[in-house]
Write a structure and sequence with these properties.
Length: about 500
């Protein structure tokens, strides 16, 4: 949970006050966990009164062990019970071979196509035009009952830009996120920054197109040398913004059909793209169906990037449909994901930066890295409705007050958490937006021998960004799909609601 909090110290603008939603409870437990503890105590008393002390002792030992599994947590805040449940679920997945995917004419996918696996299997793609006559792709998820659109951007970057301008971009970005909470039926947003090796095809095409045959031989030789040497060690950076909307216009209403939703989004897209351009995102345009298909296809099979670049260099458009963008073969492991010509590992943020940070805290994490062939950093945002934000921050303040006043000598951490919660409440009351956010980092390597280097690189980059990252154990395939610009909302695909997990 984050607010648009900024502080200026000695002319340097800093940002902070990120808080994770909590609930009051005893022994480090949340509201639900504390309630279970009291229920267990009541059961022990009933057993003692109806049977004997031995049965009561055994019952108390069983419930005490379960509560102990909830209270013992690792550095990422996960309890022993949660980790055990995750391992049991993974064992069941392997036993059913649900972690193995084969598509195509000889695979297990329906219709003999290369459809997306896992969370994206049921998604449907359609193309429409907005009010500026720009084509845009729209993804429909029947399971989550959501529609998603993807906006391609060309960020200007902070190089050779005054810090005042950067601060204005950050402020405009905060306003843009805050305004998402006022967008009708807005479910979630995601920003994906992808770095990949540059094949050099685009440069070659530009040089060949603009070279004068009658030009000096020396100049043509220099351009030829540039075309040959430039792709070595160079990278491309692409940025996408995914916006996801609820299919139903209101709670309990019938979901809208694709044509109905397309007409509404066609009128709203120009305003959304214009707002993005003011945040330093550069030229923003909605992705067409062809562009989106190419992006997803290359993500699952990086070897296809060269073929697609060659086709565009020759003036051809690859014929890709939504049923062709998935992998031919994929296999999820406990801590990795093998898909076609590459292997990927995805990390999830378990703790936001503590204290205050500057605007460039994520710069090294987002930049290309020599040990990672393809890197994808996705920031997941879930705007909170202003009507619900007030009750949420008030509940957080009550939880912080409970922890700070439950002992005679509260810990410094609890006192600081109370002041932070009160500051968040004050900012929300003055009009600041409230957003739940998370970060996924995916590292893809072509050569399996470089996997260890890629893992070490992400660990180091996470430290420079002051983030606590952990591999998504047992769910690498789902995390990989969630990091793609598909507009997937993870909270709609989990068995246990997020609100309940936060209160345990």
């Amino acid at each position: 949970m984050a607010t648009a909090d900024t502080t200026s110290r000695r002319g340097v603008r800093t940002y902070g006050n990120w808080r994770q939603p909590t609930s009051p409870g005893l022994l480090g437990l949340g509201t639900v966990g504390t309630g279970l503890m009291f229920v267990a105590l009541l059961i022990v008393i009933v057993v003692l009164m109806t049977t004997n002390i031995l049965n009561a002792f055994i019952t108390a030992a069983v419930f005490g062990g379960l509560i102990l599994l909830l209270t013992i947590r690792d550095g990422d805040g996960r309890s022993v019970l949660s980790r055990t449940a995750n391992r049991v679920a993974w064992t069941s997945t392997k036993r059913r071979k649900a972690n193995i995917y084969r598509s195509g004419p000889l695979g297990r996918a329906d219709w003999g196509t290369n459809q997306l696996p896992g969370l994206g299997a049921q998604t449907q793609l359609s193309e429409h035009e907005d009010s500026y006559a720009r084509p845009f792709a729209m993804i429909y998820s029947p399971h989550a009952k959501t529609y998603s659109i993807v906006i391609g951007t060309e960020p200007d970057g902070a190089a050779l830009v005054d810090q005042e301008q950067v601060d204005l971009w950050v402020a405009d970005w905060g306003h843009w996120l805050r305004n998402l909470g006022d967008e009708p039926n807005m479910e979630a947003a995601a920003v994906t920054i992808e770095t990949a090796p540059d094949s050099g095809r685009r440069l070659r095409r530009e040089v060949e197109t603009n070279t004068d045959p009658d030009g000096p031989d020396f100049a043509k030789a220099m351009l030829g040398e540039v075309v040959l040497s430039y792709p070595a060690g160079s990278s491309t950076v692409k940025a996408y913004v995914s916006l996801t909307f609820a299919a139903a216009p209101r709670k309990g209403a019938k979901p809208r059909k694709p044509d109905e939703m397309a007409r509404e989004l066609a009128a709203r897209l120009p305003g959304l793209t214009a707002g993005l351009q003011a945040t330093g995102a550069g030229a923003a345009h909605p992705l067409s169906a062809q562009e989106l298909c190419e992006t997803i296809r290359v993500a699952y099979d990086p070897a296809a990037a060269t073929l697609i670049d060659d086709a565009h260099a020759d003036g051809d458009v690859p014929d890709l449909r939504w049923g062709d963008v998935g992998p031919t073969a994929a296999q999820a492991g406990w801590d990795g994901y093998r898909h076609d010509s590459a292997k990927s590992v995805t990390w999830a943020m378990t703790q936001a930066p503590r204290g205050l940070v500057q605007s460039g805290v994520l710069a090294r994490l987002l930049a290309p890295h020599r040990d990672i062939a393809r890197k994808r950093v996705t920031l997941l945002y879930k705007p909170i409705d202003p009507a619900r934000a007030a009750s949420l921050v008030q509940s957080d303040v009550r939880a912080a007050e409970f922890k700070a006043t439950s002992t005679r000598k509260p810990a410094a951490r609890d006192s600081l958490a109370l002041r932070s919660a009160q500051a968040t409440e004050s900012e929300e009351a003055s009009g600041a937006g409230l957003v739940n956010f998370g970060i996924l980092v995916t590292a893809t390597v072509i050569d399996p021998a470089k996997e260890a280097d890629a893992r070490a690189a992400v660990d180091n980059l996470g430290a420079t960004a002051r983030l606590r990252l952990r591999p998504v154990y047992g769910s690498q395939d789902s995390a990989f799909a969630a990091a793609l610009p598909l507009g997937l909302v993870l909270t709609k695909h989990v068995a246990v609601p997020a609100a309940l997990r936060e209160r345990v």
